[in-house]
Design a protein that fits this description.
12% strand; 287 residues; Rossmann fold; Adenine-specific Methyltransferase, domain 2; binds S-adenosylmethionine; 12 helices; globular; single chain; alpha/beta
């Protein structure tokens, strides 16, 4: 089976560590839930038959829906071909500023909104998605003279995957997204990172602070009690260790950050937390 790959570059995307992540997946499960799907690195890698995928970011979820719909997908690709031909710094700001007039923006067709989201992702600085308090996209231009917005074959694979399987695509808060999860289902949480200092965490209007991390830990516990398999990734911070101390915590990536301050060095590690046991031979990273 051909597998899709993320069609956007997404902050916190898991493609670089996908092989490490896969070692911690339960051997069997029913429905797959990904409440913070972002670019969908693990979703595409696993390509489960039954899944509920969610992200609070409505523009991103509109792209998933558009790729699923054949007519929308074709129109979005033609639109992107035009954008590539017209690409310049001035054009970038013209497209970026379309959300400044909310009435007009809300009247845009889904394929135009989807094309805008993909184009901005590829032409903005570092593929970031950041909006201000008025929900206006405000990432600077990446200054590249050429832009490649999509890989037609990949979009075709994703289109087929979304249509020939039972994939429910939604855009709500993570807590609502897992409401129907039952015993035997597998939930993978990849929330915006916690940090002991302040870093980027504003993918959406509201941001994701300590209170949200605590609320997520409660949801993790609730799902554990329901008999679901739950896996979560985050940074190796003090708060994350406190919140999940009754579960398995595996350190999977220690970036070699030369820093004389030991506390700061710890922050760049990534952890995977599970509420279920480990497959044979992969417990060397357990905390
Ligand atoms: C670390 S990223 C996920 C990255 C993803 N796993 C990937 O591989 O690209 C976190 C995602 O959570 C979403 N998000 C933020 N707050 C949320 C909330 N309250 N409910 C659902 N999703 C939320 C953001 O829009 C963002 O896409």
């Amino acid at each position: 089976m051909l597998k899709g790959k993320p069609f956007v570059k997404w902050a916190g995307g898991k493609r670089q560590i996908i092989n490490k992540l896969k070692k911690y997946i339960p051997e069997q499960f029913n429905t797959y839930y990904e409440p913070f799907v972002g670019g969908g690195a693990l979703l595409f890698e696993l390509s489960p038959t039954n899944a509920v995928i969610n992200d609070y970011n409505k523009e991103l979820i509109n792209v998933y829906n558009c790729i699923k719909d054949e007519e929308c997908l074709n129109k979005m690709c033609s639109e992107l071909n035009n954008y590539e031909a017209n690409h310049s710094e001035e054009f970038y700001f013209e497209i970026r500023n379309k959300d400044r007039d909310k009435k007009r923006f809300n009247r845009l067709s889904n394929y135009k909104r989807a094309a805008r989201t993909i184009y901005l992702n590829k032409a903005c600085f570092n593929g970031l998605y950041r909006v201000n308090s008025k929900n206006e996209f405000n990432v600077p231009f990446n200054k590249k003279t050429k832009v490649n917005t999509y890989d037609g074959q990949n979009l075709g694979i994703i289109h087929s995957y979304l249509n020939f399987n039972n994939i429910n695509i939604i855009s709500v808060d993570f807590e609502e997204a897992i409401d129907d999860a039952q015993k035997g289902d597998f939930i993978y949480f990849d929330p915006p990172y916690d940090s002991d200092t302040q870093t980027f965490n504003s993918y959406t209007e509201g941001g994701f602070g300590k209170e949200e991390q605590k609320r997520l830990a409660k949801v993790f516990k609730k799902l554990s009690e329901r008999g679901c398999y739950v896996m979560l990734s985050n940074h190796n911070t003090k708060l994350v260790n406190e919140l999940y101390n009754e579960y398995n915590i595996y350190v999977i990536e220690a970036k070699r950050n030369i820093n004389s301050n030991g506390k700061k060095r710890g922050n760049v590690e990534e952890v995977i937390i599970t509420n279920y046991g480990q497959k044979e031979g992969h417990d060397e990273n357990k905390q």
